[in-house]
Specification:
about 230 residues, alpha/beta, Rossmann fold
Amino acid sequence: MYLYKKEMYDSFRFKFDGIEDIEQNYSQCMQDMFVLSALNGKRNGKFLEIGAFMAKFISNTYLLERNFDWNGISIDIERSSAQSFVGDGRTAKFILSDALVLDYEKILSENFENKRVDYLQIDIEPNINTLSCLKLIPLDKYRFSVITYEHDHYDPQTSTEINDMVRDESRRILKENGYVLVAGNLSNIDQNEMEDWFLDGQYFSEEVINKFKRKEDTTLPSHLYMLGV
């Protein structure tokens, strides 16, 4: 885990409105800073967070909610996660459930006013379940401006064939639905490749997409991508 700290401001590649007020981030791989960078510090944004884990610790949405007044839906199967959200005073609506049995079209229609959601996170275990969850999202009816997808391609408990399939299939699905992979195979500080980050090609200009797009698809620690060091 590599956290952004205020003293890193000068080396941060993708500055956005409001970054000056951030003391630190909370995501494991700077996903929260990527979302804010892509959307230029958007306030009052909306998220669908599948695989929320804890309310604050390695949370991709805590910073968005606390500093930028975002709100949304957080989903996790663990009761301890639900208790954490209550204990930390999170405002997101928490759904305690197996992510693979939910009706996402119903959840989206009942909780979001329009067909565009600012941020979608999918991260459940094992990675084959993350792919199954992606296939449940009504991508033909709702658009997500920013997507972070944890494919856990490194996972030693899963075969190489399954790891390859999960990553390749998720990329194919999102590409066919108009999403652009701008940063693939991002890793944590241990260089375990685990994350693909996408922008909606129907929402962002080519200029913005090119700003974030990596030239390579090799494994890269996410903080090196975000800090440019």
